[in-house]
Amino acid sequence: MSTRTTDVLWRDVEGVYAAILAHPFVTGLTDGTLPHSAFRHYIVQDAHYLRGYARALALCAAKAPDEDDLAMFCAHAGGAIAAEQELHAELLGKLDLTAEQAMALPVAPATQAYVSYLLATAYSGSYAEAVAAVLPCYWIYAKVGEHLVEAGSPDPLYARWIGTYGGAEFQAVVDAALAATDRIGGSVSETELARMRAHFTTTSRYEWMFWEGGYREETWPV
To answer: Has the keyword Lipid metabolism been applied to this entry (predicted)?
Structure first.
C-alpha cells in the first residue's frame, strides 16, 4: 500500500503541531485564562487573514485541472468569506467591536507575512504547490478544534469558537481538501512533492506565528 501524500506532509509538521497545542493562546482557550484583549486581537487579524485566504483558495480553483476541484475550492473561498461575516461579526459584537471598526485596524506583521506567502505561492506556483500552501489552515484548525472540543471552555466566547472548528461540518470541508491533496500527490514528480512539503511546512509554521501574534497582541515594532 503506497503512502498517502497527506501522511508525508503531516509527519513533516508533527513538531509544529505539538508546539501549537502547547501554546498559551490555545491552552488559554480551554482553561479560560486567555485575556479577551488577546482574543479580540486574534479575531481582528483573522478577519484580515481570511480575506487573503479566500483569494488564495480562488486561485486554487482557477488552477484546478478538473471541475470537481474547481467547484470545491470556489465553494471553500465563499465559505471563508461567510465565516468572516457570520462568526466574526458575532464574536466581535461580544467584544464591543463592529466589523467596520475591525476592518479599519492595522494588519499585523504575522498576518501580512502569512497572507503574502500564500498569495505569492498560489499565483506563481503550480496547482499542487498552491493546494499544499493553503492546506494547513484547513487541517491544523480541524485538529486543534477536535483537541479543544474534548476539553471545552468555561468561557462562552471561547466555547463558541471551539464549537465551530471542532464540529462535523468543518471536518467535512477539511476531509474534502485532504482527499484532493492525496489525489494531487499521487501524480506529482519527486521534485514537485518536495515543493509541496516545503510550502506545507512553511505555512504550518505561520499558523504557530498567527497564534503567537494574537497572544502577544502583535503590532509593528517601528
So the answer is: no
Burial of 135 (0-12, 13-18, 19+ CB in 10 A): buried
pLDDT one-digit tens code per residue, 179-211: 999 999 999 999 999 999 999 999 999 999 999
Alpha-carbon dihedral sign for residues 76, 81, 84, 89: negative
68 versus 169: the higher-pLDDT residue is 68
User: Quick check: is 146 catalytic?
Assistant: no
Query: What CA–CA distance (Å, rounded) separates 177 from 58?
Result: 14
List of residues 6+ apart from 196 with CB closer than 8 A: 5, 9, 128, 129, 131, 132, 184, 185, 188
207 is catalytic: yes
Q: Which of 129, 137, 192, 218 is catalytic?
A: 137
Given the residues 84, 192, 207, 218, the one annotated as active site:
207
